[in-house]
From TrEMBL:
CDD domains: MFS_DtpA_like. PANTHER family: PROTON-DEPENDENT OLIGOPEPTIDE FAMILY TRANSPORT PROTEIN, RESISTANCE PROTEIN MDTM, PUTATIVE-RELATED-RELATED. Pfam families: PTR2 (PF00854). Belongs to the major facilitator superfamily. Proton-dependent oligopeptide transporter (POT/PTR) (TC 2.A.17) family. It is found in: Cell membrane; Membrane. The chain crosses the membrane at residues 21-42, 48-67, 79-95, 101-121, 141-160, 226-248, 287-304, 329-347, 359-376, 396-413, 425-447, 467-489, 501-524, 530-551. Keywords: Cell membrane, Membrane, Peptide transport, Protein transport, Transmembrane, Transmembrane helix, Transport. This is Peptide MFS transporter. The keyword Transmembrane helix applies.
Amino acid sequence: MFEGQPKGLYALALANTGERFGYYTMLAIFTLFLQAKFGFTASETSDIFSTFLAGVYFTPLIGGWLADKFGYGKMVTSGIFIMFLGYLLLSIPAGNDSAKWMMFGALTMIALGTGLFKGNLQVMVGNLYDAPQYRNKRDSAFSIFYMAINIGALYAPTMATEMTNWMLAKSNLTYEGQIPSLAHQFLNGTITEKGTEMLESLKVAQNFSGDLAAFSTTYIDKLSEAYNYGFGVACISLILSIAIYYGFRSTFKHADVNTKQAQAAAATSTTQQQVEELSPAETKQRIIALCLVFAVVIFFWMAFHQNGLTMTFFARDYTANSVSGLDRLGFSIINLTLLIVMVYSGFSIFQSVTSKAKTISTAVFIGALALLGINYTTLDPSITILPQIFQQFNPFFVVALTPVSLVIFGSLAKKGKEPSAPRKIGLGMLIAAIGFTILAIGSMGLPTPDEVAANGIESSQLVSPNWLISTYLVLTFAELLLSPMGISFVSKVAPPKYKGLMMGGWFVATALGNKLVGVIGNIWGNMQLWMVWGVLIVCCLVAALFMFSIMKKLEKVAK
């Protein structure tokens, strides 16, 4: 898996890990911040969230176009500094009116900075594998790169949660998901009699001595401030990212070359490096194939990025807020890390060539297993969980399952039976439909979101966290088939003159999917939950059917 890869891959991957850690720390609490700070409805929150995500993934088209003209490295550096300013704005506590303008300005800067950074960094990764000795490692390289992204995302929800708990604890408060909504209703005079009773009960549980108005104002302010500090973590992570990028730049500097620069270098080089030339017909054929794939992935991202919106609402409003037994293992980031160590050391035992390497791997596996057992015995009988913590399961599964995926497809490749990248994308869409089918089954018989907002929900109606965890597991299988393979496909098929632009096109498709995320948020109200997830199931199935209908055309171009 890791053998024979150029050193530049690890430098670029680690730089991306730092940036993604900050981004996903922010994203883990963003929708919760919108509702806690400003009292936005689910529909208003959905519109802001989906528009922001669309901006994050649309701007790489502009970043790619600029990079094709001026160079990838310049755009990456500019992007990091612009993102830093955006996160800095978000981290500053402010009053409601000024906070709204600061927030929208920050979101604009984060979207623009990400557009300059994200796609162009990935193009440089692809450029590392244009060399003949590395070409057959392109797919595995993007799997490793994608795994590094998710290492950053894995630790982000825990950081956001710890920051929230720490800030509330300073004010002798604890997190309770219903308080912000009820507090805003009370302050706006729209709360029901039952809602007032619930808020009074929550105030007593928080040991607050003042009246309901003081409690509502204090809780909203303190929780919002906690989220501000969470956004500040992103600033620190970007400093680490830029330090890695420049500290190891020598390992990938040769990949920071667009077509214009490569041709200029070839003209003055004694070795006369060849730059691939395509006919207009070949260029058109490749661009059409890429656009067809882009059309399919729109629906995947529409479904997948519900994790930061409706799936977070589901975690907050419909999922039990405490766990016991073996379930406690999954809500400790230390235990998840130990499980990852066990997976990788386990693979190393079977893949190592020397007996010394096998012995070391076995010792690491046993050590991690022993620590996991010790940690389990020291856990509290019941652990309280926050809604954002569920977002750690997807990156955990990505990191843990990547070696499994590479071994399976490596074995199939040796037998000449590995599915093509387009076929993997089609299979990913089918598996995504299965993921939301699980959540639809788990949502049967639950009250609608509007009913919960008006009357609350009985504790007996709250569902097991395993419904969400199982959905994240299945969606991760789909993601591993679709996302890294899609990026690899773009890197491989894109005409040389338009590499940055085509990588930007991949992100535009993602942007459109992210904008459609808000469609599901807007029907999150009086519709039965299983019907909400059913919309996503149908979208994934239709996209899979379309993908398989054009498979021959795509596989022809891929070859």
